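Hi Q.,

Before the meeting this afternoon, I wanted you to have the adenosine-5'-triphosphate prediction in hand. No need to reply - just skim if you have a minute. The sequence and ligand are here:
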Amino acid sequence: EPVAVPALLDGLDPDQRAAAERLDGPLLIIAGPGTGKTRTLTHRLAHLVTAHDVPPEQCLAITFTRRAAEEMRERLAALAPEHAGRLTISTFHALGVRFLRELHERLGLSANFTIAGTEQQLAILTEITGAEKTARELLDGKTEWDADLRDRYTKTLRARDLVDFDDLITQPVALLEADDALAESYRDRYRWISVDEYQDVDELQYRLLRLLAGERANLTAIGDPDQAIYRFRGADVGFFLRFRQDFPGAATVQLTRNYRSGKHIITGARQAIEPTTLVPGRELHACGSHAEHALIGLHTAADETTEAAFIARTIDQLLGGSSFHSLDSGRVDGDGDGGLSFSDFAVLYRTDSQARAVVEALTRAGVPFQKRSHDRLLHRPGVAEILRELGFVSPEQAADVPARVRGAAEAALSRIPAAELDERAVDIHTALDLLAPLSRVHEHDLDAFRTELSLGAEVDSMDPRADRVSLLTLHAAKGLEFPVVFLIGCEDGLLPLRWQGATDLGAEHVNEERRLFFVGMTRAQDRLYLSHAAQRHRHGADRSLPVSPFLAVLGQDLLERHGEAVPRKRKPRQISLF
Ligand code: ATP
Ligand code: MG
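Predicted structure with the ligand bound:
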């Protein structure tokens, strides 16, 4: 009989509670955006270790991003402080690193192997093929690898005590598939496994999960097929859809109460996904405690510059500013909510290049922002220098990671010849800033810091605590929420995205783009603004893009339209939609 821990599950609704209370066996939780998936998973883990006495060491929770793992760790620390530190909460890649550190000998690596960055991969491939161009094409996936090349590449990596990013999953899978006793030992270690965002697992991740779950299969998969947006990276929503075949006898729980968004936003999002939903009969109800339910703003801009100006103006207005009093075109509902700050706003876009106009407008208006960059942190100027210096630090030295990072930056600066000092110094100072949050997280663990750094993708450039407007691609916005969201560039060609010269986009691509639109809309808590520009600079020319077909299904009663005078002569036909 489980011990009753009433307070722990108090914050859950009946469906969330049912999911959290389920002790063992495979469990599929199908749940729309904002229905508390992440929250349910966290409470479920806390409940397992406190009420059911499951040893925390036997719990493995897999998240999609490092940031999601961190957030889950924090929430668990609040719910079950005495156990939280002993659970494994990790991304697939970080889990792969952990396995390979344990199994290094089988691959001929030392326990301190490092993860090759793109530069190192390129150098090795150039050595082998004798041509940098060929090497680049191999890395771009433009040229096929043959078995001999693959073999030489892998041997060279291993000889230098390196693994590459792909190895982090392929190698553990290969090792566990080849050695059942080994797989069994991992199954014994992790008896309770949960995976957030299961709709976006790829084949290798799926194979790893099956190896780890085994027959016992205390596997909880949680996700939303309608938010599957990583097909281009090899993710396959099919694994979610066939979970119940893969794990016979799986219990299913659906979460349909959305606590995040106002009711018009939810209705609009439901309409947007309805034409191609992967969850037949899907339900999603607005259950949040919203004081008011704003309509969805739909803004027609003349071009990307005025679209960006609209954003700056609206932020100012919602913050209660007065600098833009005489609005002649854009009209914003409401007259300034109290209590909003810059970090409550997010601007979401399909392609990174759309951010430029927004950056300019916000800079001009003096609005602080942070933009998630697509560079891996490792490739930022200055970071490599600091890391190289860190390599010289002996492990016996006191493990105060932030202090050591600072020391390494100083050492790097002292090595730079005077001639290039100014320029490089700026790089190194910037790099030091970027490394400072991360080094604080791993205060006493230099190895973990370096691993994270090699794995840490674009995420690292965002500080969730900074009071700044967030500029994000739709993909990067997955799992996040903001009181006010601007989803810009709602045009046919951007949403759905059309590559230059592409004619037939293919139904699968358009469906995925629609899901991306759905993900974007459902990030908004209180206010959602959709915007499109009648004309936009794209592929080197000013183009008139028709309005996104995804807007056409939104009920007129949900929309509050505002627009600017759009040049008439080139008004595309589809604009008559409004
Ligand atoms: P996504 O699909 O976007 O990842 P999600 O299903 O993971 O969404 P969460 O991020 O866990 O949703 O929760 C969304 C919001 O709803 C959060 O602000 C969370 O605190 C709130 N929430 C979830 N469940 C409840 C509840 N039972 N009562 C009140 N608020 C809740
Ligand atoms: Mg979530």
